[in-house]
Each structure stands twice: as structure tokens, then as C-alpha cells.
Amino acid sequence: MSEKKRIAVCMALSWDYVPSQFFLSYNALRDYTESTGEYVFDIVVARSVWIDTMRDICAERAMEMKPDYILWLDVDQTYPHFTARKLVKHIDDGCLVVAGVTPDRVLQSNNILKFGGKAGVYRDEDFEVNRGLVKIDSVGFGGIMTHPSVFDKIGYPRFQRNWIEGDKGIYYRHGEDTVFHEKCKEAGIDVWCDTDLHYGHMALREIQVYQ
Predict the structure, then answer these.
(1) pTM
(2) Angle of helix 20-34 relative to helix 83-92, nearest 10 degrees?
(3) Is the pLDDT of residue 59 over 90?
(4) Does 90 have pLDDT greater than 90?
(5) In order of start, what are the domains of the chain with their CATH numbers?
(6) Higher confidence at residue 168 or residue 152?
(7) What is the pLDDT at residue 177?
């Protein structure tokens, strides 16, 4: 029997808990992926107040494991049980970075971004789902699979939060995911999105009782 391929599953865990919806979807995802006997999961976690620090720590720890694939999951999302196996196929077909589609928690839109504009990045309001695999500029980092070679090509730090100066002294923040994809572009690495792969995004809210 051939050796199992290893999937390093990276999760930034700044909370003391994970939502039950994520936990249940992760278990289903892991069980379905490992059920073929072809793959095995290695969990990689990091804890910090800074998301870019956590992602860089996860990347370093994952690389030390020498995995075949690196899967990035956010614990405030839910994922179809077939997510990993579908992303693995895209990586095996030559994609180095591939994601699914996540709805924005505030806007009635997706989380697909394009490079350009005053802020250096803007939401792709014309993006359409359910049309197969397409090339994109940037996307949120929950539910992304990366080939390990990507992290050798873009160098350290792989994730940063940058501030871009626009008009009238207004600064726009680039998230750690956007900066990662900018580094990919500089390194000549294409970023892809499977528009048929849809994730859930949880909006946790505090509820108070008023007298």
C-alpha cells in the first residue's frame, strides 16, 4: 500500500473555544477526506492576538512537517465535507493556491477582491459563482489550499498587515490575506477560486436583555 499523502490543516486559534458549527463541519470534512485511506490530516494551530503572526507561525510549523498540501481553515466558517478532496484535485492539476467562495458577514456579497483603486484592492462586485475554476486576485483565507512550495517562493514574512496611503492622507489597511496574495502575484503565482465550492460564514453577536 502506498504511503498516505499528508494534509497540514492550519488554524489560527485566538479564541478559547471553537463554534460547534465549525467543529461539526470540520469533523465531517476530516472523516470524509481520510475515509479513502489516501490522506491523513496533521493539525497545526497558533495562538496570538495578531492574525498575521498566527498565520506565519502556522506556515512555519506546517513546512516543518513536509506535507503534500496545506489547508487553511477559519474557525468562524463552515465547510462542505468534500472541501479538502476537491481542493486537492486542483492542486494535483497544477494550481498552487486555490480557494472556495465565502460570503461577507456584513455585506450581501462575496469575499473576492481585485487589485487596483485608491486603496490598492477593492471588492469584485461583478464576481459570479457556479462557473467552475477561475483565476482571481485575492480572497479571504478561510478555506484555501496551498502547495507547500508557495511558501519557499514568496519568502518570510508571508503574512502582514499593511497600510496604504490614499487621497487626503487617508490610509487603507490591507489584511494579511491580501498581502499574501500580493506576494504571490510578485512571485508569479496564480490564485484560483472554485466558484462551485461554497462556504458558510458565522456572524457571532452579543445579545443583551433590556429592562
Answers:
(1) 0.89
(2) 50
(3) yes
(4) yes
(5) 5-201 (3.90.550.40)
(6) 152
(7) 87
Q: 3-state secondary structure string, the chain?
A: CCCCEEEEEEEECCCCCCCHHHHHHHHHHHHHHHCCCCEEEEEEEECCCCHHHHHHHHHHHHHHCCCCEEEECCCCEECCCCHHHHHHHHHHCCCCEEEEECECCCCCCECEEEECCCCCEEECCCCCCCCCEEEECEECCCCEEECCHHHHHHCCCCCCCEEEECHHHCEEEECHHHHHHHHHHHCCCCEEEEEEEECEECCCCCCCCCC
Is the CB of residue 6 less than 8 Å from the CB of residue 48? no
**Residue that the C-alpha cell 485566538 belongs to:** 14
How much is the pLDDT for 205? Answer: 66
The answer, yes or no, to whether residue 41 has pLDDT greater than 60, is yes
Q: Is the peptide bond before 103 cis (omega within 30 degrees of 0)?
A: no
Task: Using the structure block, give the residue that is written with the C-alpha cell 495578531.
Answer: 50
CB 100 within 8 A of CB 143: yes
As a whole number, mean pLDDT of residues 67-93 equals 97
Contact of 23 with 78, CB cutoff 8 Å: no
At 27, the pLDDT band (50, 70, 90 cuts) reads very high
Residue 12 to residue 127: CA distance in whole angstroms: 28
Residue with cell 459570479: 128
